[in-house]
Design a protein that fits this description.
Region (Disordered): 1-23
Bound molecules: adenosine-5'-diphosphate
Protein name: Mono-ADP ribosylhydrolase 2
Oligomer: single chain
Strand order of the largest sheet: 3-8-7-4-6-5
Biased composition (Basic and acidic residues): 5-16
Strand content: 15-25%
Structural class: alpha/beta
Radius of gyration: 18 Å
Domain Macro: 20-201
Distance between the termini: 21 Å
Family: Belongs to the MacroD-type family. MacroD1/2-like subfamily.
């Protein structure tokens, strides 16, 4: 069975009818995504995504936590990367983190105002990070709520963009990834994602 299919043994429109060969049905996209509330630096995934700034030389928020947990070698490697443009992504090792790699992406600065350009740039952060996952043959990745902290992107539209972009990408690249984790840190994001994930990734 190719990895993107599963067999539903129960009878039904997608399952095996009496006397028929079992039908391969597309895997549920909801099987590939998780919501986790807490510190991204403890996750044992192939890559965690860092909401970095364009210098890649450290900042506050999740970036500060990731550098602290990964140790000084992460800073040294970031120093060789020559920064990163908004919407783009670059990959480094994970050093002392349980994650093997860190994907550094730079979200748009919104400060409460979101125009078309900011929305597109935020979507590109997710797309370009996922492209690196695929390029490096990684199977699992965790995202923080990019741009919604210091960069001031409103939480709700940011979550919509994260979920919509990931859904579109996973649909197109269903063989390329086993798990995409949305790592929220705040109660408000947890509530937003919990409600939206069941809509973007229905379980049946
Ligand atoms: P940005 O500059 O892109 O807005 P921030 O780091 O300020 O990035 O915030 C992005 C999100 O990361 C916010 O929701 C913030 O609460 C969250 N965050 C902060 N620390 C952590 C952490 N250790 N693990 C996961 N998420 C975190």
């Amino acid at each position: 069975i190719p990895t993107w299919t599963r067999h539903d043994k129960s009878k039904g429109k997608e399952g095996k009818e009496e006397g028929e060969e079992p039908k391969a049905v597309p895997v549920l996209l909801s099987d590939k995504v998780s919501l986790y509330k807490g510190d991204i630096t403890i996750l044992e995934v192939d890559a965690i995504v860092n909401a970095a700034n364009s210098t890649l030389l450290g900042g506050g928020g999740v970036d500060g936590c990731i550098h602290k947990a990964a140790g000084p070698c992460l800073y040294d490697e970031c120093h060789t990367l020559n920064g990163c443009e908004t919407g783009r992504a670059k990959i480094t090792c994970g050093y002392d983190l349980p994650a093997k790699y860190v994907i550094h992406t730079v979200g748009p600065v919104a400060r409460g105002h979101v125009g078309k350009a900011q929305k597109e740039l935020l979507s590109q952060c997710y797309q370009n990070s996922l492209a690196l996952v695929k390029e490096h043959g990684l199977r699992s990745v965790a995202f923080p709520c990019i741009s919604t902290g210091i960069y001031g992107f409103p939480n709700e539209p940011a979550a919509e963009i994260a979920l919509e972009t990931a859904k579109t990408w996973i649909k197109k690249n269903v063989n390329e990834v086993d798990r995409v984790v949305f790592c929220v840190f705040l109660d408000t994001d947890f509530k937003i994602y919990k409600e939206k994930m069941s809509r973007f990734f229905p379980q049946d």
